[in-house]
Task: inverse folding
């Protein structure tokens, strides 16, 4: 035992030590409570923040940022899962610079640890990523990562994607509280994503309705067909974010489609093309009377890529304008740039509804034009009937009267004048009868236009050539090119294709027919051996003579890659 003084000091210090321990414990609890309070406040603020946004991309970015702050992670990402639930379709990251992302390369598709959450959508917490059985390392230039926390995000009981957090700051490990906080944020994120999706869908529906109204108004106000088709292509391309939009219509009597309108990337390569029903995306959609999609239109085995026209394009969809019951009136093709998202089922359905509405508007406009045409024809019939029943009869009667009066005229010169007047009346009657015939004449049958005749001539040459020549037409070739010039176009085309078959030994031929209302230009190109210097020129002379008679000309050149290019051009005379 110590001295009495030591005992007294011990009695004084003991309560003081216990008080310090109590104060330290109290301080620790206060700090913990304050930390919990701050974290709850942070979580509430994060929930409110992501819930305020309505743009889906902004919502996703806000979720990733909030997740990284709440659990104090250096790196965070949100992976959006594909509709089939097997891979990642998008990846939003925080903490990795754009330069580092470029060095790493493509975004992950959902393998390794990321795929573990896709296959098993439950919270996953790891002290070291490399120790998990599903881990197989990182790609080159990827920052080192050890600790990991992942939770799924559900939208209406469907897994939308996963939150991935790595590298808790300070070298600490993610704990149960981090997991709880992140799971709570994931629930709020699901609600925010659902709201953003609904808002986006409503805005899209509004844009589609506005586009339909615009197209209907244009059609019903006698808008030109090409303008309306261009409007359909432009609006569909804008709303879906497509790089290329095209509209093709069937060519009567040919079993082919003609691309009437193309806007966007390399539109000139598509404009005027004649497409087969079985070797083109648009043809397949027309034949099936239903949508046809392609994940990569530039490498789709169902599609003929001759001539080349899909460079830089990837996902595509072709949707018929109209239905099988009412008849398909045409096809809309949309294509996005390579690497972009494929067209979803929802987008395709919406586009199909838009095309169906456009078909109804086109049908109504056609009915209105038919009614107007019938009214014009009826008016022509009335005029012709009046001319025949009234004007001709009166002129004939006047002529008979003058003829009978000639014998009562003694003056020879006066009698001659009366006889000349009678002859003039006969000529006038002939002119009026010719006019009546013109008024009562009807348009030719289906398939008699220049477009159809060009496609038919190219099809007839295919067995002799050994391949089908590609055909492209641009401009109002059926209306701007008179019949006599159209006959010469067909004759020159047949002569050119026959010469290729006989002499060129070609494996490809391209036909282009264009008119701007001032001239018509026929271009025939092949990749054959060319025209030898000592070869016969009778066919070329015939084509040149046809052009000269119409005030035009024929040019022959050799393309850089060999073969022959003939350009036959003549002015178009409007009547």
Result:
């Amino acid at each position: 035992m110590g001295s009495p003084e030591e005992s007294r000091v011990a009695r004084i210090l003991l309560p003081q030590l216990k008080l310090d321990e109590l104060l330290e414990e109290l301080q620790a609890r206060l700090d913990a409570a304050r930390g919990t309070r701050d974290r709850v406040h942070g979580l509430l603020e994060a929930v409110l923040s992501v819930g305020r946004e309505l743009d889906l991309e902004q919502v996703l970015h806000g979720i990733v940022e909030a997740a990284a702050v709440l659990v104090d992670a250096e790196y965070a990402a949100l992976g959006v899962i594909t509709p089939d639930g097997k891979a990642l379709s998008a990846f939003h990251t925080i903490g990795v610079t754009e330069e580092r992302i470029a060095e790493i390369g493509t975004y992950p598709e959902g393998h390794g640890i990321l795929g573990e959450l896709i296959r098993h959508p439950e919270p996953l917490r790891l002290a070291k990523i490399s120790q998990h059985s599903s881990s197989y390392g990182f790609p080159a230039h990827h920052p080192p990562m050890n600790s990991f926390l992942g939770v799924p995000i559900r939208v209406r009981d469907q897994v939308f994607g996963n939150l991935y957090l790595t590298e808790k700051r300070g070298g600490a490990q993610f704990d149960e509280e981090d997991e709880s906080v992140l799971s709570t944020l994931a629930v709020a994120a699901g609600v925010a994503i659902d709201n953003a999706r609904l808002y986006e869908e409503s805005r899209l529906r509004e844009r589609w309705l506005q586009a339909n109204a615009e197209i209907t108004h244009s059609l019903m106000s006698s808008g030109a067909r090409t303008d309306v088709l261009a409007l359909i292509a432009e609006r569909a391309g804008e709303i879906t974010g497509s790089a290329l939009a095209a509209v093709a219509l069937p060519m009567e009597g040919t079993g082919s489609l003609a691309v009437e309108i193309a806007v966007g990337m390399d539109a000139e390569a598509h404009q005027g093309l004649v497409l087969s029903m079985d070797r083109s995306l648009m043809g397949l959609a027309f034949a099936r009377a239903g949508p046809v999609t392609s994940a990569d239109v530039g490498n789709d085995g169902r599609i003929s890529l001759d001539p080349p026209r899909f460079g830089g394009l990837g996902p595509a969809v072709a949707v018929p304008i109209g239905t099988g019951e009412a008849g398909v009136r045409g096809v809309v093709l949309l294509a996005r740039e390579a690497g972009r998202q494929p067209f979803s089922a929802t987008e395709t359905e919406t586009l199909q509804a838009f095309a169906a509405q456009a078909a109804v508007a086109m049908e109504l406009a056609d009915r209105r034009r038919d009614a107007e045409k019938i009214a014009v024809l009826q008016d022509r019939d009335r005029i012709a009937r009046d001319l025949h029943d009234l004007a001709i009869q009166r002129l004939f009667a006047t002529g008979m009267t003058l003829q009978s009066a000639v014998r009562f005229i003694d003056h020879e010169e006066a009698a001659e004048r009366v006889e000349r007047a009678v002859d003039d009346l006969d000529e006038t009657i002939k002119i009026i009868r010719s006019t009546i015939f013109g008024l009562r004449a009807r348009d030719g049958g289906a398939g008699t236009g220049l477009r159809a005749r060009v496609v038919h001539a190219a099809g007839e040459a295919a067995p002799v050539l050994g391949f089908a020549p590609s055909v492209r037409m641009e401009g109002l070739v059926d209306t701007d090119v008179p019949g006599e010039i159209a006959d010469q176009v067909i004759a020159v085309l047949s002569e050119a294709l026959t010469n290729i078959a006989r002499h060129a030994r070609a494996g490809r031929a391209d036909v282009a027919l264009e008119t701007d209302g001032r001239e018509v230009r026929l271009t025939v190109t092949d990749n054959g051996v060319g025209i030898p210097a000592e070869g016969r020129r009778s066919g070329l002379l015939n084509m040149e003579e046809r052009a000269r008679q119409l005030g035009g000309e024929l040019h022959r050149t050799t393309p850089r890659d060999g073969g022959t290019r003939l350009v036959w051009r003549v002015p178009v005379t409007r009547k």
Remarks:
- The first strand starts at residue 73 and ends at 81.
- Confidence is low (pLDDT under 50) at residues 29-36, 442-446.
